[in-house]
Structures are given as structure tokens and as C-alpha cells.
Amino acid sequence: MTVHHIPCGEFANESERKAVERLKADLNKVAGQRDWIILSNVPHSVTTQAVPDDVDLIVIGPSGLHVIEVKHWDSSYVSGFSNTVTHETDKLANKLRKIASKLKKANIDAGFLAGKFLLTRESVSWKSKRPTIHGSTFFGLKETSQLLELGLLQALTETEVQKICQVLQPLSKIALTGEV
To answer: Which residues of 80-116 are buried (b: 16+ CB within 10 A; e: fewer)?
Structure first.
């Protein structure tokens, strides 16, 4: 198994770098012969009117397509259900709609896309139930197995993983195969 990290832009902060390193390390421990692709800082919805919006992480592998925002928050910050948290979940929902639309235009069914947040501040623990706010679920760095649903290792074929990656980031073909 190989974990391919394809940086599509510079890390915005140390939390993003830390998240990618943790995901790579944890995925390298997973038994199996299937590849995983991590796209970081994927630009989308580029227009002349605004700064390009990006998705912090898109992880594509046997368990599916995972769209992840990385935040330097802890569980108490999320539990406060502040306006900032709600605003960020709404922003992620808009990004998910754009990604789903792009995949639909390419005739790709990646299943239901749910927003996920990876929290990098301290140890994250949920006193009761893991929070879901406006359709987005929150995970800590030690919960990558749940974040990436590693129990579902047959959701996407190797061909589907490659196709999704190339639709979301056309330049990835060069990084994955060396072909132009």
C-alpha cells in the first residue's frame, strides 16, 4: 500500500502540516494492498471576484472520499457551538456541494459526502456523543480510523480512486503516474 500526498498549495498553518503527517503515518499502518491519496490545500471555485477558496484536505481511498477541514480547535470550543463553528460548518457544506457537482458532471458516484473536521489542538475527547453540526462531524488527531472510516475498505475501487483524484485535481496525474 502506498500513501500519496499531493500538495496543491502551501500549508496555511502548522495544524494543516501536522494533520497531513498524522494521516500519512496512520494510513501507512493500515494493512492492505490499496493506495490512498491525500490532496492538501485544493483550490476550487476560483473566480476573478474573490480569493480562491480551498479545501484543507481531500483523502481518497478504499473507504471513500473524505473532505476534511483542519482546525486548531479542541472539543470544548466545538461544544460551545459558537457562531464561528456554525459559520465554518456552513462553508464546508458549500464546498461539498461544489465537489459533488464536479463529480456528478464527470459521471462519478462517490456516495454521500459528509463534511468532517479534524481538530488538532490538544487531546480531543467527547464527553457524550460526537457532535454533528449542520451535517459536519468532528474528530481529533487520535481518531483517524473513525475519520477515514477504515472499516469500510471496499467502498471505492482503485480505478475510482484514481478517477476521482484526477477530476478534483487534474494535475495529480503527473504526481501519481509521471504522465503528462
So the answer is: eeeeebeebbeebeebbeebbeebeeeebebeebebb
